[in-house]
Design brief:
Blueprint: H1 2-8, H2 20-46, H3 49-76
Helix pairs in contact: 2-3
Length: 82
């Protein structure tokens, strides 16, 4: 029912695919937010800022790569596009 309403809505959809650079910039901005969150959670759980920063540093790189790949795969999927 909700999906039917979304499909029938009159909003304009962009048919242009995103360029890889846009995916990179989105990945970087999202990872900054996510990494700060991970560092804070790690610090609260461990009580050690050095450990929290180490966890956050590794997480920053691995999740940015995963996000980029995820975005590029979804860019090739036409589901939900008209």
């Amino acid at each position: 029912m909700l999906l039917d309403q979304v499909n029938k809505s009159n909003y304009k959809q962009d048919k242009v695919t995103e360029r890889p650079l846009r995916s990179v910039l989105k990945a970087i901005s999202w990872r900054v937010v996510g990494t700060i969150d991970t560092i804070v959670i790690s610090w609260v759980l461990t009580g050690e800022m050095k450990t929290a920063l180490a966890i956050g540093s590794v997480e920053l790189v691995t999740k940015m790569l995963l996000y980029f790949g995820h975005e590029r795969i979804w860019d090739r999927i036409n589901y939900g596009r008209q």
